[in-house]
Amino acid sequence: MATLHTRSVARFMMAPAVLVLLAWMIIPLAMTVYFSFLRYNLLMPGTEQWVGFENYSYFLTDPAFNTALINTLLLVGGVLLITVVGGIFLALLLDQPFFGQGIVRLLVIAPFLVMPTVSALVWKNMLMHPVYGLFAWIAKSFGAQPLDWLAVVPLFSVILIVAWQWLPFATLILLTALQSLDEEQKDAAGMDGAGPVSLFVHIVLPHLARAITVVVLIETIFLLSVFAEILVTTNGGPGYESTNLAYLVYVLALLQFDVGGASAGGIIAVILANIVAFFLIRLIGKNLEA
Amino acid sequence: MARRVSARQKLLFTVIGWAIGLFLFFPILWTLLTSFKTEGVAIASPPVFLFFDWTLENYWEVQARSDYLRHFLNSVTISFGSTLVGLLLAIPAAWAMAFAPSPRTKDVLMWMLSTKMLPAVGVLVPIYLLFRDWNLLDTRIGLVMALTLINLPIIVWMLYTYFKEIPGDILEAARMDGASLGKEIFYVLAPMAVPGIASTILLNIILAWNEAFWTLNLTAADAAPLTAFIASYSSPEGLFWAKLSAASTLAIAPILILGWFSQRQLVRGLTFGAVK
């Protein structure tokens, strides 16, 4: 329907957004790739030299990389597990009619709207503090020894904090999907004698499959680069126990000024994210055609 | 479609629902309560929940000691500024994609989405160095630029999914009646597009307000928004929980309220229209 004239107008209107994004993506990424082949430390200016894949082999064989990679996977996997399972449960609950449902929904959504640095600090100090924290008090009132969460189980603590932030996201999306489920279909199944469990397994869960996939993929994109929560709570420690890839690259770049090594790490993070993105893009692309 | 639910069932769900809701909300509630305590009461064991002398002292302290207002204004400038610039870039683009699609439109949209999936650490080093060389480190302008570009794909996508729902026939009709492009946009499209644009603005302000990678890495003192300001409280010495709580409450309250009003748009924007 569009005429040749409107087409060229359209291209003109798209140009600014496309061009700035292209510049924002291509230029820094190309620089990162270039830096990743250099020996380049900000503390030793003028000593840059081409070293080929040395940064990559150094980064990939560094024990810290292994730890960080495993931590990244544990962090993503742990948070996904908690938020998807918890999200399904919460969505089913919020889908039931009860008194004050609207208010409860607002309470459940709230953690998602809290900035990461605030939630990390609140959890670190007021909840997980080994002496004055609320968890310590609860442990003591049950006669148990309070746990120094961030020192003893740092990664698990970070997982808890991040899961608390992302649970509302999963809940909200699954609830939206749940509400589009055809009531008549459920009623019909109920009349045919399907119990709540088989109703859930055969009708509700398949209906949610797509929304669950969306939750998993989008959360993965964000969770691969969790940063502020680690910076504020544990600084990646003790040792590298709670360092993920994003944090490791940050340490190399802005604390050790190793531009070459950090760039190589950044490129590896990009490759990992691309694997996830590939599936997400296909999923959303399919939706665009429908 | 009324569902058959017995009164007892409803009561049961009410109890479970509220228990879980309050449980998840508790850290925020606890922060709010602590912000009204004195430092001594804040770390009291056993903890004091409601019966203490409520004080506003901490709020004044936070302002007086660390110039809270400046960081707050930085957050406002950065989130509103990046949203405004983003809209200026995105509205024409989304309009063109929705109403004059070419065979390549879908590819462009997908490509924009893919930029969002580039992990920030992948470009941290060059952006940091470029910002340093251009004197943009720790400036509000620099952060507005960075956050505009980070959220631009989401803005374009959200607007696109909203514009897409406006019937093209109406535009055709206006065109037949001789409306110019300007009139078409201003009189026909704009009134229908306002709700979508409003939701986009809300979501984008929320995202920019809470963004905590670039705001932490590209600022030091002058341009530090609330995310970075709060992070400065993480230093281990001293227990200033009441003040921390007051600062936190102030930092999250505006966005919490905005977010509560726009929960439905949140879903749409964050899933790029894949779940409606």
Q: What does the model show?
A:
The complex is a heterodimer of chains A (290) and B (276). With 290 residues, chain A is mainly α. Chain A has one domain: Orthogonal Bundle (MetI-like fold). Chain A has 13 helices and two strands, in the order H-E-E-H-H-H-H-H-H-H-H-H-H-H-H. In chain A, strands 1-2 form a two-stranded antiparallel sheet. The radius of gyration of chain A is 24 Å and the shape is globular. The two termini of chain A are 20 Å apart. The model of chain A has no long low-confidence stretch (mean pLDDT 86). The mean pLDDT of chain B is 84. Chain B has helices at residues 7-34, 39-42, 57-66, 68-99, 105-116, 121-133, 140-163, 168-176, 181-210, 214-217, 226-231, 241-261, 263-270. Chain B starts with 6 loop residues before the first helix and ends in a 6-residue tail after the last helix. Chain B folds into two domains: 7-59, no CATH class; 66-270, Orthogonal Bundle (MetI-like fold). Chain B is mainly α and 276 residues long.
Topology:
The complex is a heterodimer of chains A (290) and B (276).
Chain A: H1 4-35, E1 38-39, E2 49-50, H2 54-61, H3 63-94, H4 101-113, H5 116-127, H6 134-141, H7 149-152, H8 154-179, H9 183-191, H10 196-223, H11 228-233, H12 245-255, H13 259-289
Antiparallel strand pairs in A: 1-2
Helix pairs in contact in A: 1-13, 2-13, 3-8, 3-10, 4-8, 5-8, 8-10, 10-13, 12-13
Chain B: H1 7-34, H2 39-42, H3 57-66, H4 68-99, H5 105-116, H6 121-133, H7 140-163, H8 168-176, H9 181-210, H10 214-217, H11 226-231, H12 241-261, H13 263-270
